[in-house]
Amino acid sequence: MGAAQKIGHAAYQGPSVVKEIMIGITLGLMAGGLWKMHHWNNQKRSREFYNMLDKGLISVVVEDE
């Protein structure tokens, strides 16, 4: 067996289940975090809108000219 065969055999070890699980968990947490930030941003915008509406700063009624 030559040196090239030993190097070729050592290069491929197959999938690492633990590594793939950790990558999956990491990607899932990142995607979940982005979704949660999006949700919080929508909540903030809605809360600001209704606060302005309650204070009379804005109106949803179209004024006639």
Automatic annotation (TrEMBL):
Q: Which GO terms describe its cellular component?
A: mitochondrial inner membrane
Q: Major place of localization?
A: mitochondrion
Q: Which domain of life is it from?
A: Eukaryota
Q: Keyword set for this entry?
A: Membrane, Mitochondrion, Mitochondrion inner membrane, Transmembrane, Transmembrane helix
Protein name (database record): Cytochrome c oxidase subunit 5C
Subcellular locations according to the entry: Mitochondrion inner membrane
Q: What does this protein do?
A: This protein is one of the nuclear-coded polypeptide chains of cytochrome c oxidase, the terminal oxidase in mitochondrial electron transport.
Q: Does the keyword rRNA-binding apply?
A: no
Give the similarity note: Belongs to the cytochrome c oxidase subunit 5C family.
